[in-house]
Amino acid sequence: MGGKVMMLRKVTTPFVMQIKLLKILALLGCGDKLASEHMYTVVGDIMRKCDSSSNIGNAVLYECICCVSSIHPNPKLLEAAADAISKFLKSNSHNLKYMGIDALGRLIKISPEIAEQHQLAVIDCLEDQDDTLKRKTFELLYKMTKSSNVEVIVDRMIDYMININDNHNKTEIASRCVELAEQFAPSNQWFIQTMNRVFQHAGDLVNIKVAHNLMRLIAEGFGDDDDTADNQLRAPAVESYLRIIGEPKLPSAFLQVICWVLGEYGTADGKYSASYITGKLCDVAEAHSSDDTVRAYAVTALKKIYAFEIAAGRKVDMLPEVGLCGTSPAFLTLAI
User: Fold this and answer.
1) What is the extent of the structural domain holding 36?
2) Which residues are in the Clathrin/coatomer adaptor adaptin-like N-terminal domain (predicted)?
């Protein structure tokens, strides 16, 4: 006995039942190639007939994409799903953009290359005013990152982090930026510059291990006994730290890195005199007189520079006092 098919905005009613059936198909086709092959035509037809100008149509279309991402992969359906996601991401609606971000996150698990064609549209979602959408976008960008796009994505992540006031979220973003930089950095120079930005804008929320890893990287250089290459890494680091060192409210861990680098390599290439570098280190020690660890790093760096100068047969002035009077036992232990 035939029945009349009812349509609402080009979607077969009841559309809620249609969504539930798509969810069932997704479960049945997951890990089952033969079952999935029987679904391809039906799912493809639904995607073609969906009216993307209506909320109902978009809801069904989103569920189709979820289904496509669950069943055995089909190139034509993946392409259709990618096209639908593109429309979601380009929409002015926060809700549709959110659906696009969520759907793309599902799709890239089975077809990672799809992420590349949507990368710029996803990054643009970080500029949206909706905080929930921005957090969802951040999570997707983290999953999308690889060596070929790490520079663009991490740079935008840091920009996003700068405008966040919540310390919990800022800590998480800083941690993810560090993780991606350590995993995919295209060069040591880029890694150092990126860590500088993370320290400057996340402050003491950055794990102290990051500072230690940064110092180790600069100390090890390229690891192939190439002094010229190592100097090309360390000299820019010294340059950047001399520019940064006078900025207010630098985090303690970052100041430790700066003092250590200036002590080890501040005069290495002869561009800067010992008196210039020691002057900068004294400024740090005096400006951070209440931070025993920073002062200890500064004084240790001063001692290294003076030792280098004496070993080179150059005359040095007396080690400046940098406010050592009344120093705590902890400071004295650290500075030895």
Assistant:
1) 1-144
2) 12-319
